[in-house]
Amino acid sequence: MQVRSLFLLLVLILVAATAEAGKTKKEKAKKDGSKCEDWRWGPCVPSSKDCGLGYREGTCKDESKKLKCKIPCNWKKKFGADCKYKFESWGGCSAQTGLKTRSGILKKALYNAQCEETVYVTKPCSSKIKSKSKAKKGKGKD
């Protein structure tokens, strides 16, 4: 009988501790020392060079904050790291310019970033010719 009550007490303590830990995480997420709700965030500015770790400054009324951020080094600098686009497939190669083009439509603007609705990107045409059809295994000629 004592073993059961001891086990039950242990389970209750464990449940209470877990609930308290969950509550403090939620409180920490909400409680950042500010009651301001209308934050305006600037772009992510790398600490060195033009990509990598950096900081984003935010202001709300007379308060200001800095958040850590990161700009991937392979990201298209033209769009910024806060503008996310859905791109279509590459178009055909232009014989006049030697470039391929594709467009992207804005999917998400992070931190209220000022983003263009549609962007266009180009890249040089490939000089290699890729073969698109390969023989499939198990399929013989009839």
Describe this structure in words.
The chain has 142 residues and is of the alpha+beta class. Among the domains are: 36-71, Pleiotrophin/Midkine, N-terminal domain (Heparin-binding Growth Factor, Midkine, Chain A, Single Sheet), CATH 2.20.60; 75-125. Helices cover 20% and strands 32% of the residues. The protein is built from one helix and seven strands, in the order H-E-E-E-E-E-E-E. The chain has one helix at residues 2-30; strands at 40-41, 45-46, 52-60, 63-71, 83-87, 99-109, 118-124. The strands form two sheets. Strands 1, 2, 3 and 4 form a four-stranded antiparallel sheet that branches. Strands 5-6-7 form a three-stranded antiparallel sheet, with no helix packed on it. It is elongated, with a radius of gyration of 27 Å. The model is unreliable at 24-31 (pLDDT under 50). Pfam families: PTN_MK_C, PTN_MK_N. Keywords: Developmental protein, Disulfide bond, Growth factor, Heparin-binding, Mitogen, Secreted, Signal. Residues 80-141 form the Pleiotrophin/Midkine C-terminal domain. It is found in: Secreted. InterPro entries: Midkine_heparin-bd_GF (IPR000762), PTN/MK_C_dom (IPR020090), PTN/MK_C_dom_sf (IPR038130), PTN/MK_diS_sf (IPR020091), PTN/MK_N_dom (IPR020089), PTN/MK_N_dom_sf (IPR037122), PTN_MK_heparin-bd_GF_CS (IPR020092).
- How many helices? The count is 1
- Could you tell me the strand content as a percent range? 25-35%
Shape: elongated
Uncertain segments of ≥5 residues (pLDDT<50)? 24-31
How helix-rich are the residues, as a percent range?
10-25%
Major β-sheet annotation: 4 strands, antiparallel
Tell me how many strands there are.
Answer: 7
Helix/strand/pairing category: alpha+beta
Reading the helices and strands in chain order gives HEEEEEEE
Distance between the first and last residues' Cα: 80 Å
- Rg, alpha carbons: 27 Å
What's the mean pLDDT score? 77
